[in-house]
Design brief:
about 100 residues, alpha+beta, three-stranded antiparallel beta sheet
Amino acid sequence: MAASGKTSVHRSVKVYLEEHNDLIEEISIEATELEFPKEHVPILEMHLIGRKMTRNDIKRALAEVYEATGSSLSSEDEEALVRSILAAKKSSSAAV
């Protein structure tokens, strides 16, 4: 069963996603306070589509974006982003 319109908010990271069978089908990330260029967020979103909703797969997508763009997040910001993505799976349609 597909998850519909799930949203999560942690540390100024807002994630909207739709997933099916534990795979990310659609994702939108708003991360205004993270030290990550805004123009790289769509690249990250593209790398996350089709990934499993696991910490390792999300971190693998981040590593690919870091390699492709030369930008990276601090370990604290990366953890906040990963937690927000995983929380979006568990949350209801209301922000947490």
